[in-house]
Amino acid sequence: MKIVAVTACPTGIAHTYMAAEQLEKTARGLGHQLRVETQGSMGIENELSPEEIAEAEVAILAVDIEVEGLERFDRKKIVRVSVTEAIKNPRGVLAKAGA
Amino acid sequence: MRIEHEFVCTLANGLHARPASLIAEQASRFAARILLVRRVTPEPPPADARSVLSVIGLDVRQGDRCTIRAEGDDARPAIEALREVIELRLDEAEQAAEIESARLARASTRVPMVVRALGARTIAGEALCSGFGFGEVVLAAGLPHPASVASAPAGAPESEHTRARHAIESVRDELLARSRTAAAPPESALLAAHSQMVQDPTLWESISAALAHGANAPQAVVQAAATLGDKLRSSSNAYIRERALDVQDIALQILERLLPRGFSSVPELVRDSIVFADALTPNQLLRLNRAFLKGLVLGPVGRTSHTAILARGFAIPCIINVARPSTIASPGHVAVVDAEGGFVIAPAQPDVQAYYARLQNAAERRAARLGASGAETACTRDGQRLEIAVNASTAAEVEAGVARGADGVGLFRTEFLFLERDHAPDEDEQFTAYSEAIHAAAGRPIIFRTFDIGGDKPAPYLRMAHEENPFLGCRGVRLHMRHPAMLDVQLRALLRAAAGAPAGSVRIMAPMVATPDEASWFRSRVTEASRQVREAGRPAPGQVPVGVMIEVPAAVHSLDLFAPHVDFFSIGTNDLCQYWMAADRGNPSVATLNNPHHPTFLRALRYVVTQARRTGKWLGVCGEMGGRPQDLPLMIALGVDEISASGSQVLALKHLVRTADSQRCRDLLDRACASSGPGAVEERLASGSWRAEPAPLPVIDPACIDAASGATSKEDAIARAIELLWIAGRTDRPRDVEAAVWAREQTYSTGLGYGFAIPHCKCDAVDAASLVVLKLRGEVDWGSTDGQPVRMVLLLAAPIAGTGSQQHMRIFATLARRLMHEEFRRTLASLTETSQIEAVLRSELQLN
After folding, report:
1. Which residue of chain B is at minimal alpha-carbon distance from A22?
2. ipTM, 2 decimals?
3. 8 Å CB contact between A5 and A36
């Protein structure tokens, strides 16, 4: 299935990227297509396009802070978890998303 | 004859100790009876102007109207002289006090997490000067209770009177002798002030009164000190309250004469010590063995007190305003003074001692690392060289400056040998003083300025005529021409001292030169003195460069005419500015004019440099402007050969030179010269536009990798990681970095699981994006999500902004992603050598 995700942690130095890596790696292992947008100290990277969001069945928000552009997911199924949870148990997070 | 002079006290601290002693010093030169009246209602009894304590006791505050009244034959000159002191010299004391209180700002207690984790008992206070130290607890006594000195029965009142008198005289003589041999202010100034205070009539009256009531001599001294101390302590003014300690100081010294049976107010230090005292007098501090004095813990002490000034002067880590220090520690225990955090640990357990010993070691390693390149002659990033010299007036200051990396001595002020004494120093005394300074300079260039007496620095034995306007009067080379024999003595002493130094390293410079004739005359005196030295059969150097100060506007336009007579020029910015702007630097009401940032003055400096360059002569700057970090870009832009600063600024200035771009500095000066006023110039200076792009430091630095760390806790590991950052010169404020790392740690643990932790922070105390790696010999609990202990710590420290910060953040992000892969973690965990860890990180993070 197609999934989009956003990760963001308080300092934006490390956990944002660890969560992104975990979700991407685990999803790939399960045969899903997952795209992660990171909102860290380098600003927004790998920004999700409207098409990608439209095509995705679910959006995972692994965020500990307020993030930009939440309105993009207004009509989407959203799974909201903490950054730590995405790092510690990416498989469980994906399961919540129905993947 | 009775004459009066009325004035309004403009000093913010009122007539406190220093102004009072200036007034008393001047008043005692005259036979007239001189009274100081404070015109307030109700009017307090007038003070005897010859008594420092009496003047202080009058408690004159800012804005008070006062009258000085003199009665006697010499009343007129007395009033003239006092008027001059009041109008000119008191402000100087004021400015010193202001600088002190400006430093008051930082004083909050901050105990590092690692110290808290060790469960140390900390006692809060206020830090007086930075640093830390540890050693054995030593208590210093205060004034004894009158009852404890009562055992000796009072002799006949007359004999007790004589005993007290003799003790006072002996203290005075010793203080005078010590003030002559003391290295430099503030020590010499303090001793001189105390030698005056001990002779103060009010103190003597108070002692006499107690003797008259049947007290023995020591009791009378204790009582007099207590009475006077109470009077000073009740003053509305903090500065005057602090003078109570000076009275106690003098009393203790008198008591040491009166109670010879082992009474000493000064403990003997035999190993590294922390001295605890409810009240430590300046003299007690001076007499402590500073080789072993590692810290001070004091009760209520004002930041402007002499004790505080001395402690700062000697850079002794010091915590003040601690409640009853004498009761919080026992002799023999070990105590720690942490003036970075504003607290004391007493007693300090072995693990706390071990932490501070390690910190000490880190401080030494950092100094060695920074000092290695720090002392070399500094060049801007684009290669313009600028020598940073030190200003000095004693050999000790030269030595300290050289130790801090000074390239030479840009200004050795010889006049301090000539002031505060009743006759000029003879040739041998001067020879010794100059030889010591030359020896301390260790072959580096040293510029001796011949005695710059006059203006604000009078010497009583020269019987200088009263001048309406001494700054425009007979000073500098003008005074040399009036007293050529005195100059000859100094020149012979200098030439003899220079004989042993490398050719050309000792240079002689004349102050206050206005015309080429004066320069030519000065040169001829040097030639003549050299001939006299040779004729006397003594060795004289072949070549001694002779120069003049450029500090009189008249000289600015005739550098080419000076050139045949001199080998070098040095700009004295302080005087040049006050003369250029026609604004007395001692007069606060024209202070806004007396500012070297006026574009007209900057243009004058630029003109001087252009003219000097045409003559091909060496050019330095020895005024205050040369030593101020804020003005460094202007100095670089001017392109002078050397600037001269106080010793404590040398390394900081060299560091700044290395961050500068000379072209950007010149652009800044061009704009500054075209600015509307000093405010705009100061804004430009503060903008930092003159800096070169910082040289990027690599994120991975072997100095920040410890492959076998002995960290025993999370707190310890974080502290050790930050110590590596500090040693590597990537932060100046390790405590701020620690606070930022712990603030992040409070949101949720940075324990990753799998035995890894990645503490991190982004803060302005970090100078360069850095990765610190600690591979632990043991394991520590980190509150990790998987409950496993940590064996590897990767600390990521990021600055707030800066060039290449995106690129550094990318490295951190890549590292974070890589850590999610088991293979990478396994590789890292298996490495045992620093070089291996460095190589693996470089290749995995694609840094090669």
Report:
1. B820
2. 0.93
3. yes
